[in-house]
Predict the 3D structure of the following.
Amino acid sequence: MSETKWQLVGFYMNPSHHVFCYHRRRHPLVTTIPPPSPNKYSATFLYVSHAPSNLLLSFSVTMARSSLHGLSCLLVFINVCFAQFEHFPQEFQDGEAMQQHRFHSPRACRLENLRAQEPVRRAEAEAGSTEVWDQYSEEFQCAGVNMLRHKIRPRGLLLPGFSNAPKLIFVVQGTGIRGVAIPGCAETYQTDLRRSQSAGSAFRDQHQKIRQFREGDLLVVPAGVSHWIYNRGQSDLILIVFTDTRNVANQIDPYLRKFFLAGRPEMVERGAEEMEGRSRRGSVGEKSGNMFSGIADELLEEAFKVDSGLVRRLKGEDDERDRIVQVDEDFDVLLPERDEQERSRGRYIESESENGFEETICTLRLKHNIGRSERADVFNPRGGRISTANYHNLPFLRQVRLSAERGVLYSNALVAPHYTVNSHTVLYATRGSARVQVVNDLGQSVFNGEVRKGQVLMIPQNFVVMKQASDKGFEWIAFKTNDNAITNLLAGRASEMRMLPLGVLSNMYRISREEAQRLKYGQQEMRILSPGRSQERRD
């Protein structure tokens, strides 16, 4: 893991009323300083970082002549701040240093015949079920992604665990709470829990921040960070989980590996050894152990200061509940109920208006709602809407290099032909159905069929796609393998056709200037198109 090292390289005095902060690479920086003032001085501190960042940072602080004796204290304070800053992981400091953020497939992708895929395996648990798609399909192998679906019944708890790659989770249905155990962060939530172990006794429980979520939320889970999910609603909680197994955060192999902290979950993901024909302890359908199962009992007794009976529980021996368990007793966590109460106490609020600068590593905003209609980025009252989550509205997506798109098409509406410039797209149908066509670089149709609720279609980078909803409409969530995925339209406003001169269009297609004008300006809608001639012919 890379670290940024800072060194004080300059200090000078002059009047100023500004704070300068530079964040550039390999470019000389020149600062213009105002002329001296008879009443005020400004202390300027220049810091430079060593590789890999090569940054220059300048602080300029204004003070009166009588306050110069405080400069030494200020200098010590700034050095302490940077001493702390340099120990932050590089991925939390500077996402731009991770330009090569995905591992490429070692062989050429065979994408001549795309398929709308459904789950291939299902694991039943005490309080729900988990379904997985085949991550070894040609499409998923090329894109380096994995998909699974959790169904958690009311009062069901998805056991804590972590994986070797970052995840995006879309809440299709239901509400709940979750905990994300960010390493090194304090247990900032504290509560008194009354116990019956001895009469009148009480002790204080402490834990990290609890985060609420609801239908339409996009949740982010970094690689190697443990998290749990609890269904506190009255209906089933349905979650679609997308994992980017070729992300640079995964340094093992391009396959999903799930590490559980409790229980004995059934193995539903095939490992690399199994796919390559090599023997491996455990296979699909068998029970696996948790992270404590392979550690000697006496070592765990010493580590946790507990007896052997509790160690056996820790290892999950004779635990048949699988990865989603039923919570029978009260679920004791401290959870603020209303934002108004939080604001009155001056506590942190997970609002949607933050820009990322006020976030610390322990209070990161790890969700963004893209299901609500008022959040639409593209809207057509006759056609539907599209909402996007990228690093602009959810800054932490810059660190995991992922984004997502939520789409709603009304009856028989269309999405204009387009392609994604810089990412693969993994589309999951949440409601209804649509006719989808995908075209490759040779102009050949590699998919021309229906995508129904519950199916997944992988659309490779730069492949052109067009969708038309059925009579019942169509809704989807699309995961993208870039934190700022760019869509290029081929028809309608702001499209490729609008960017070309009429002379180029007429010669491209051997048509008259009038025909080129109709081709260029005939469609006045953008991206989402109202039902038109094709619907009239169908009627």
Q: What stands out?
A: DSSP finds twelve helices and 28 strands in the chain.
